[in-house]
Amino acid sequence: MSQETSRNIGPIVLLGPPGAGKGTQSKRIMEHYLIPQVSTGDILRYNVAQGTDLGLAAKAVMARGELVSDDLVCNMVLERLRQPDCKRGYILDGFPRTAAQAGWLDALLDSEFFDNTRPTRAWPIVIRLDVDYNKLLLRITGRRSCPACGRIYNVHFQLPRTDEICDFDGSKLVSRNDDRLEVIQPRLAAYQEQTRPVADYYERTGRLICVNGDQPMDEVTKQIYHIIEDRRA
Ligand code: ADP
Ligand code: ADP
Fold first, then answer.
1. Chain centroid to CA 77: how far?
2. Which ligand has the shortest distance to the CA of 218?
3. CB within 6 Å of ligand 2 — which residues?
4. Which domains does the chain have, with CATH numbers?
5. Could you tell me if residue 170 is left (phi over 0), alpha (psi between -120 and 50 degrees) or otherwise beta?
6. What is the pLDDT of residue 111?
7. pTM of the prediction?
8. Which residue ranges in the chain fall short of pLDDT 50?
């Protein structure tokens, strides 16, 4: 067994506004520490694409750039965290996004839901990526992703080797339905109104670590790895 697959990492929460780099950094952490990325946005988009009951309930809300109800999202997260691949740890990308979700997560990790020997009951490492508002707009409108493997690109900052084609599997890159200007505004507003209090909650309890997400991707990654090593040493 390699060192990374035998080491317990525990929960990691990545906070930050839309376009801050949560997905990009989650994928790097996932590959480095071999723990899964639990992206509520990705799981919801998958459900919308599959036309499940959850997807049908979430579709219109997401298209308007609003938040899906806490009940639906928390149940979805609970089901995901029960999977055996979350045993050594996981990265929560886009969750918690409301104060209620943050309280729910703390209660869950404090409960007997996870067996006592599981490292996933540890307090999460909470990292917020901070990015200048005007840069967020450019990042979001320029975002492209691979519908097959989920890798993220950008027409300004992270070009694929061949125009509009995924470097890894050759799929044609797509834009997200909610990355349109008219939907970006309500998403950023939802972040300010509903998700900022989540960071305040973690700050009050002395758990918030801020990283300047305006730096080049590799530098952001380096700082995140340092934080993880420091906290889990
Ligand atoms: P989030 O998951 O927080 O919405 P993403 O990881 O999808 O953010 O990143 C949004 C866009 O910005 C993507 O197109 C990505 O390639 C780009 N991006 C991410 N991090 C950086 C960075 N440090 N510098 C420049 N562009 C970035
Ligand atoms: P971004 O990467 O731009 O931050 P996400 O992919 O995380 O966006 O989320 C896309 C959409 O999915 C959100 O605008 C919201 O409608 C829904 N969503 C994702 N996570 C949550 C959550 N934790 N609570 C409520 N709604 C969510």
1. 12
2. 1
3. 18-19, 22-23, 40-41, 44, 61-62, 65-68, 73, 94-95, 97, 101, 178, 187
4. 10-35+88-232 (3.40.50.300)
5. left
6. 82
7. 0.94
8. 1
